[in-house]
Design brief:
The chain has 139 residues and is of the alpha+beta class. It has helices spanning 12-16, 20-29, 44-50, 60-67, 82-90, 103-107, 122-132, and strands at residues 5-10, 33-40, 72-78, 116-118. It starts with a strand and ends in a 7-residue tail after the last helix.
Length: 139
C-alpha cells in the first residue's frame, strides 16, 4: 500500500552553492507539505550506513566522501502519491538527462553531485526518514 510520505536530502553540493531556498521553494510549489526538516551533517560512519546498499559499487567510496563533506538538509515530505510525484520533480540522476523544470536540471552539476536525494520506494522512505528523524521530530 502506497503512503503519502517520502524522504529527501538536499546534498552538500546544493547546500554549498546556496540552493536550499530555491529547492525548498520548488518542493512547496509542487504541492508537498514539509513535515520534518533539519540542517545536519553526516559523519563518514553515517554516510556509510545510509548508503550501505551501495557498498559493493565502485562509486561507494566517493559517495560516502561527498555526502559527509558538508551539511545537508534532511526532510520528510507529504503529498498524495509522494514517492512518484517527488521522483518526477527531482528528475533523472544525470542532470543532462533531467527534464526541464526539475530540481536536478536546475541545480545539479553532474551525475555525482546531483543536488538532491529522493526515496525510491515507500519502504525506503520509511527507513530513510527514521534514519534522520526521531519519532518526536516527525509531524
Amino acid at each position: 500500500m502506497a503512503t503519502n510520505r517520502t524522504f529527501t536530502m538536499i546534498k552538500p553540493d546544493a547546500v554549498e552553492n546556496g540552493h536550499i531556498g530555491g529547492i525548498l521553494n520548488m518542493i512547496t510549489e509542487a504541492g508537498f507539505k514539509i513535515v520534518s526538516l533539519k540542517l545536519t551533517q553526516l559523519t563518514v560512519a553515517d554516510a556509510q550506513a545510509f548508503y550501505a546498499v551501495h557498498s559493493a559499487r565502485p562509486f561507494y567510496g566517493e559517495l560516502v566522501e561527498f555526502m559527509s563533506r558538508g551539511p545537508i538538509v534532511a526532510a520528510i515530505l507529504e503529498k498524495e502519491n509522494a514517492i512518484e510525484e517527488f521522483r518526477t520533480l527531482i528528475g533523472a540522476t544525470n542532470p543532462a538527462d533531467a527534464a526541464d523544470g526539475t530540481i536536478r536540471k536546475k541545480y545539479a552539476t553532474s551525475i555525482g553531485e546531483n543536488a538532491v536525494h529522493g526515496s525510491d520506494s515507500d519502504e525506503n522512505a520509511a527507513i530513510e526518514s527514521a534514519f534522520h528523524f526521531s519519532g518526536r521530530e516527525q509531524f
